[in-house]
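Quick start: what a row looks like.
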Amino acid sequence: IDPIKIIAVVAVVVGAIVVANADTEQTDGGNNTFGGDTMALTSACTYGAYSVILKLRVPDGEEGLSMPLVFGFVGIFVLLGGWPVLLFLHAMGWETFEWPQTKVMGCLLVNALVGTNLSDVLWARALQLTTPLLATLGLSLTIPF
């Protein structure tokens, strides 16, 4: 057990606790945030499992699946599984769906290619070269204040 890794994990957990407790003071009459915190915790656990499985199933080198193929399958899954959920939420009136303006669509496209796609590819490469813990801790350092 590496003490540096333990300190890094404790620092990230303490930071998450601070962020989760920052919204407990409801001076504006806001809603209870337990549901949102529960969804965030579930998402974090799923992300952790995804990171470990990705490290185990897509090793660095020639054996196993290639990273572009994995991201291609993730993209197809989101395309086929995400749109029906979005349209269902729109039909139920729980979420409003509308196309963004052309100028905003261009900014979203640049953000998707550079901000999301590039960062995911670099994160996946870091995951292959290091460990899921180190790659995720490094990713958490990119969150702005």
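That is the whole record. The CA atoms of residues 13 and 127 lie 20 Å apart. The chain is about 75% helix and 0% strand.
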